Structure formats: C-alpha cells, structure tokens
C-alpha cells in the first residue's frame, strides 16, 4: 500500500457501483425502474428502496427524502445515466419491451461516423424527469473509440444523427448486418439547440407500468 501511495496516482475504483435518486414520487419511480431495467426490488426500508438487475446488491436506490421537491430543469449537476447493451439486437429488444410498458424514448441518435460507430443510443425520462440513456458501443476496442472521439467527424457533429428505432428494427429483421445499420448518415455540422433533450415532453408518471397489449 505504501508504494502505491508514493506513486502519486490515486487508485481508481474497480467499477461504478450505483446511483441514488431523491424523489418526491417514490412509488412511480420504483415501478418505472423495475419496468425500465427489467429490475427487481431487493429491499424497501423506510424511505429507501433498493433496486437491481444483475449481481450487484443495488444499482439504483430511490430515496423519499423529507422535503424533496421537483427536479429543477437546467440546474447544474447530473445530465443523464447511461446503461449499455451488448448488441443492437439487445438494445432494440429492450426498446420494444419498454414500449409495451408505455415507456418510449424522447430521443434516438447515432453518434458515429460513416464507417464506424461510437454509440447508438436512445434517451428516456423517468417520472421525475431524470434522463436515462440506453446504448450499444460500436467499436471493438477503446483505442478505436478514442481515435474517433478526436476525429474531424466527431468535432463537426458531436451530437449525432437522429434515427427512428422502428425503421432500424425493420432493417435488422430483414437480415441486414448490425455493422451496416450502425453506420451514421452524414448531415454536416449540428448545434446543441437542435437536441430534443433541451425541450423534452413532460415525464410520464404512472403508479404502475403494466404490459400494454400490442
Ligand atoms: Fe451518454
């Protein structure tokens, strides 16, 4: 330990563990996260509800903190929380499942350049208006991803190109390779004022997110 301390570099953590959200509407928030993440409640103790979807004891906790008010748009702080899927097929499977719960994205965008892709993502809102991202990485390794993030294409349009998930699902179901579907069409420079995230619709608040028959 002494040698590590002398190295001058702080030991980075092994992983990001969980996010705790204060909420004035804990029941809709808990039901939303169960439906959104395919998650379950591990423990509900007093004002705290702990939720997970994998082998971590909790990934999200909802806290009904006394005096908690509504989220203030445009305040400083957290912009969004991102969740990764392994494949485009998985990303769109989860999209379809959420849609059946009445949970729809507020923005779908392809971040990548014409020949490869940094990330393909869909942004959602929870009942308090916190933004959640679901994404699939499209580079095979972090070096290629880093190289793209310093490329002229990314500098020109760091926000990406919007897509219709239903359209991409049709292409996927027709047998088109994921690598082709992930290619980003070029639209030239894009400004931050064009992002749907700046003027999102009101969040959907429900006491349960039951399956809606198609
Ligand atoms: Fe993100």
Could you walk me through the main structural features you see in this protein, from its secondary elements to its overall organization?
The structure is a single chain. The chain has helices at residues 2-6, 26-37, 88-100, 142-149, 152-156, 165-173, 178-181, and strands at 19-22, 40-45, 48-52, 60-63, 80-85, 107-110, 119-125, 131-137, 161-162. 26% of the residues lie in helices and 21% in strands. β6 and β7 (119-125) form a beta hairpin. It is an alpha+beta fold and 214 residues long. It contains 7 helices and 9 strands. The protein has a 5-stranded mixed sheet with strand order 5-8-7-6-9. The protein has a 4-stranded mixed sheet with strand order 1-4-3-2, with helices on one face. It folds into 2 domains: 14-66, 2,3-Dihydroxybiphenyl 1,2-Dioxygenase, domain 1; 79-202, no CATH class. Mean pLDDT is 88; it is low at 113-118. The chain is globular and about 50 Å long. Residues 80, 82, 133 line the site of fe (ii) ion.
Give a topology summary.
Blueprint: H1 2-6, E1 19-22, H2 26-37, E2 40-45, E3 48-52, E4 60-63, E5 80-85, H3 88-100, E6 107-110, E7 119-125, E8 131-137, H4 142-149, H5 152-156, E9 161-162, H6 165-173, H7 178-181
Parallel strand pairs: 1-4, 5-8
Antiparallel strand pairs: 2-3, 3-4, 6-7, 6-9, 7-8
Bound molecules: fe (ii) ion (FE2).
């Amino acid at each position: 330990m002494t040698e590590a301390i002398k190295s001058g570099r702080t030991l980075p953590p092994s992983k990001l563990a969980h996010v705790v959200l204060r909420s004035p509407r804990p029941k809709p928030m808990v039901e939303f996260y169960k439906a959104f993440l395919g998650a379950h409640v591990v423990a509900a103790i007093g004002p705290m509800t702990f939720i997970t979807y994998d082998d971590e004891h909790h990934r999200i906790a909802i806290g009904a903190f006394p005096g908690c008010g509504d989220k203030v748009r445009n305040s400083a702080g957290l912009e969004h929380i991102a969740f990764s899927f392994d494949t485009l097929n998985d990303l769109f499977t989860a999209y379809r499942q959420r849609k059946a719960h009445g949970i729809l994205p507020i923005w779908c965008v392809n971040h990548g350049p014409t020949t490869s892709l940094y990330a393909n993502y869909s942004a959602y809102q929870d009942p308090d208006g916190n933004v959640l991202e679901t994404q699939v990485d499209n580079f095979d390794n972090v070096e290629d991803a880093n190289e793209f993030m310093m490329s002229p294409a990314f500098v020109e349009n760091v926000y990406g190109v919007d897509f219709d998930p239903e359209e991409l699902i049709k292409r996927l179901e027709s047998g088109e390779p994921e690598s082709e579907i992930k290619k980003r069409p070029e639209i030239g420079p894009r400004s931050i004022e064009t992002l749907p995230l700046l003027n999102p619709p009101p969040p959907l608040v429900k006491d349960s997110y039951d399956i809606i028959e198609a």
